Amino acid sequence: MATSIKKCMMLCCIGHTVSKEDMAGQSYEEAIAELNKLLSEKADLGGVAAAKIKQLTAELSAAGSKPINSDERIRTGFTQFKKEKFEKNPDLFGKLAEAQSPKFLVFACSDSRVCPSHVLNFQPGEAFVVRNIASMIPPYDQTKYSGTGAAIEYAVVHLKVENIMVIGHSCCGGIKGLMSIPDDGTTSSEFIESWVQICNPAKSKVKADTKGQSFSELCTNCEKEAVNVSLGNLLTYPFVRDAVAKKTLALKGAHYDFVNGSFDLWDLDLKISPLPL
Amino acid sequence: MGPSGFTQQQENNNQETVTEAEKGHDLFNDLKSRFLSFKKNKYMGNLEHFQNLAQVQLPKFMVIACGDSRVCPSNILGFQPGEAFMIRNVANLVTPFENGPTETNAALEFAVTTLRVENILVIGHSCCGGIRALMSMQDDASGSLLESWVVAGKNARIKTETAASGLDFDQQCRHCEKESLNHSLLNLLTYPWIEERVSKGELLIHGGYYDFIECSFEKWTLDYLKMKTEGTDMLVVKDRMVWC
User: Fold this and answer.
1) CA-based end-to-end distance of chain B
2) Which residue ranges are recorded for the region named Disordered (chain B) (predicted)?
3) How far is B228 from chain A (nearest CA, A)?
4) pLDDT score recorded for residue A210
């Protein structure tokens, strides 16, 4: 405060009118000066400051982007697809118009950054895709969250997919939300927190195994552990269990890290034995 | 089984194990090359953009589409990473608020109240297996999970059977694909935090129908103002467009 008053007085004394831009510039310079002063006193905060500044830059950059015309955006996207893909592949799209026979059922998060059509280059016809918050699979239930069961039943029994892949990802808001639910269980959302608590076992495991990692590192561990919980829940669906036992269906877990540009893929070590007759 | 039969069985088992291992290996290689292709062609070529995205997502669209392998909105509408928050479920259904928690409304809550998207686009499509299952259901509960889910569209089926009774089954299914889509648009307004933003003009609700036989896309927008002015619960739309 003292700094800003002093500067204003100086400008007043030299008869300079302070414009709106000047005022905005002064606020920004002031803020940067304060930050520099703090970092010179506490150098260990440099990493934290850099991360926050990076995030702020990204937010301002995205928020400052031009407003879109939604109709125009849809029109451009569709006409380009029709011209570049549909009309250039008449055999493929002719077959697909008759029927689909995808080899994959993929569970991916709803996050705008992780569509499997981009990350794994899935073309039309290749993958039946379910997208929800944090790509979670609840255990078998006839009524609760039946949408998931419907998709798995359709893909496994009707489409006869050969692989189910569950893909988690970095910086997942759903997992962060799960990890942020306080120990007393109080929730503030209508639906989100009830949904993400499907993977409470992952949260418990990660917290029990922690070796003093940061919250962010715990979230990353939970992103991967939640995939394993979902894979385990898949086996509560009788038709999945049958197909896995008959070896007509494989289950895979995966984690897409868009910060580092990497993709992990794994199998669960399942020992499924046939029931004794 | 005699000794030779047993040996044959053993050989068959060994062959199967090798085949399984080969299948697993092929699958691993396939997925690896898919990811590396994305990384080379998209990620590395737009590194700064992906680094910004890694910090924050601010999609302008929330899209609800069917899980059908032929209708991914990233393909048919060219949505790029960061543009569209997406839900994909069987038959692109949105159930009303009073039906209680679903996977879909958890994602809706996040998109509308946290990400504050500006558009919700529900996309239906031709030859939808989920809608066909809805139209084929018998009254007695079969215990099928698919039917437990699609039964949420039963009002659309009733309307279809009344309006399209003269049409054959395939045509009725096509009618129901659009009817169900419109019901989903109305169901969106049963969520208070959605209606609030729509009434303030901060959020638009659109329906879209992708016909992959003719390759056409039809789009319309819910006209909230007119619905309120006319005091109707029935869907009123504006800005209807078709691209083919």
Assistant:
1) 64
2) 1-23
3) 23
4) 85
Asked if residues B167 and B197 have their Cβ atoms less than 8 Å apart, the reply is: no
Q: Which of B32, B82, B87 is closest, CB to CB, to A132?
A: B87
CA-to-CA dists, residue A12 to A5, A17, A23, angstroms:
10, 7, 13
pLDDT at A7 over 50: no
Residue A55 pLDDT level (bands cut at 50, 70, 90): confident
- The interface pTM score, or ipTM, of the predicted complex is 0.91
B193-to-A189, B97, B105, B116, B226 alpha-carbon distances in Å: 12, 11, 11, 11, 20
Inter-chain CB proximity B58 and A173 less than 8 Å: no
Is A171 labelled a binding residue? Answer: no
Alpha carbon separation from B83 to B45, B62, B80, B207 (Å, rounded): 18, 9, 6, 18
**Residue B68, annotated ligand binder?**
yes
- Segments in A122-252 forming alpha helices (H): 146-153, 173-180, 192-196, 200-209, 215-234, 238-245
pLDDT band at A186 (very low <50, low <70, confident <90, very high): confident
- Kindly tell me if the per-residue pLDDT of A178 is higher than 90: yes
Give residue-wise pLDDT tens across range B128-170.
Answer: 999 999 999 987 567 799 999 999 999 999 999 999 999 999 9
Burial of A59 (0-12, 13-18, 19+ CB in 10 A): middle
pLDDT value of position A65: 62
**B198 inside 8 A of chain A by CB:** no
| Backbone dihedral region for residue A212 (phi beyond 0: left; psi -120 to 50: alpha; all else: beta) | left
Check: CB of residue A97 under 8 Å from CB of residue B213.
yes
Q: Which of A104, A191, A248 to mutate to test the interface with B (most CBs of B within 10 A)?
A: A191
The DSSP call for residue B178 is: H
CB atoms B57 and A111 under 8 Å: yes
Q: What is the pLDDT of residues A213-264, one digit of tens each?
A: 999 999 999 999 999 999 999 999 999 999 999 999 999 999 999 999 999 9
